[in-house]
Amino acid sequence: MKILVATEKPFSKQATDGIAAIAKEAGYECALLEKYTSVDEFKAAVADADALIVRSDKVTADIIAAAPKLKIVVRAGAGYDNLDLAACSARGIVAMNTPGQNSNAVAELAIAMMIFMARNQFTPGTGTEISGKRLGIHAYGNVGRIVARYGKAFGMEVTAYDPFITDAAVFEKDGVKMASSVAELYKNSDYLSLHIPATPETINSIGYDLLMSMPKGATLVNTARKEVIDEAGLAKALEERTDLKYITDIIPATASELAEKFGKRFFTTPKKMGAETAEANVNAGLAAARQIVSYLKDGVTKFQVNK
Ligand code: 3PG
Hints:
By secondary structure, this protein is an alpha/beta fold.
């Protein structure tokens, strides 16, 4: 059996060494394709792979077609919008993610982004503190829960909304208030931290109306996906409300226009870095390798995301 690790954005060496060690112990081969620059390179590398580990790399129907032996794909991370699940299912290929493994890294970045914007992007001048401000968490999954905990540690008043959680006790046990709707959450959040996945329901769902409803001086923090933002609506809101700010870890399609028009009220990281910590690389990479071995040896399908 051969495991291919195909990562345009490489893992740390500690993580790839760990993946190779898990493969070796299982009696499998392990190959590495890092920083590749073309789909053809990916196709060639996957041609003899039985298992595939990726990060945000796009596993399209074309990639699947180029991998006749493929049995399992693991997205080492949370969001699996980069996997063509239908193409996997059509071939009987199991697709998985590694939920929770890189959450702390993303949560730390979300808090750092709030402080960075509160302190004028670390440029001279009087900033503000996040303590005492209202933090809204949009989606209370693995990352959202940690951001809530860290927000509370900073003295923030934390409220959350999750379309799949209707029991207020789930939030209350963490000292977090439950918002009854997305609208209520945005209306009462000085900082809004986004943790929704990109799905047909969420794509372009955060735009003009929600932003315009936010309190004076509010900041939207996106460590989730760029696709969930309606960028035209965002630009219109930032234009009309000169107190609003947007910071993102996923380069917007219209990044240069936003940077030019909104100066210090907008910031994007140059490349998604939420999960870019040594710890997250090891946690997610090794979990992916272990899940592959458990599936190929024992048929374990925990964390399968397709049917
Ligand atoms: C995730 O969904 O786990 C994060 O967005 C991390 O993505 P990355 O592996 O491309 O850094």
